[in-house]
Amino acid sequence: MNPLDNHPFAKMNGAGNAIVVLDLRGEATEVSPSQARAIARARGLAYDQLMVLHDPRTAGMTAFMRIYNNDGSLSSACGNGTRCVAWFLTRGKDTKRLLLETDAGPLECLREGEWRFKVDMGPPRLDAARIPLLDHALDTGAVRIVAPDLPGDLPPFSAVNMGNPHAVFFVPDAAAIDLAGLGARLETDPMFPEKANISFAQILAPDHILLRVWERGAGATLACGTAACATLVAAARAGLTGRAATVTLPGGDLRIEWRESDGHVLMSGPVELEFEGAFDPAIFAGAPA
Known about the structure:
Elements: E1 8-14, E2 17-23, H1 33-41, E3 49-54, E4 63-69, E5 74-75, H2 79-90, E6 97-102, E7 105-113, E8 116-120, E9 157-161, E10 165-170, H3 179-187, E11 197-205, E12 208-215, E13 219-221, H4 225-237, E14 244-249, E15 252-258, E16 265-270, E17 272-278
Parallel strand pairs: 2-3, 4-6, 10-11, 12-14
Antiparallel strand pairs: 1-2, 1-17, 3-4, 4-5, 6-7, 7-8, 8-16, 9-10, 11-12, 12-13, 14-15, 15-16
């Protein structure tokens, strides 16, 4: 018997970012890449990220989060998923603040309303070695990528790590971009040793950005919290916006602030519970643990 057979889960979304929350606290069970892919293929359970909760490793933390993309690969951070987890862990409680562990470090979550949370995503990493880029000497504020199969008018990108690597391209019309074609091609470019999330951003106003995102390991998505954070940082560095802006994604708006006092990036946005259920054992047939 698979330990995930009939296990309860919650299907949620954060500004449209499709999320499945799986609580394995108090259990020795871990999710394998093949199981993560099987869940993503199950009817009605297609997700961008699977947020798996384990017992905390450090005193004072509520849980340790392991984050899977829908191809079974791991991600170190997911802002929209973290807000969903914060709701999951605080529903029916008077809790206003909690700390969650991730491979990218601790994340502080603050309740702003019944269905709205703010997450402190920590400071961005802006040096090429920590993003990482293949060439550690590059200026991450404006990186040119040239290849025969890429458009000649592709602008330079800004590289930012928000727990995972991001390449942000500022374009005059984000809707005109071939997101599937360019996103899939750039995600795996040799310039990105750990692949990258690819974002195309259009500045609408000094405090408003339109954003489309191709997530590494997930593809085109309605929202990506870490990409919204990376984009605001990139825009502020380039003098295109201030240090706070509304980022509009296909799934909705996120409010992002790059705090000057400590350099941390704060993300506020909504969550929604779509339904709860239990995994059909047939999902995992042929998916080794």
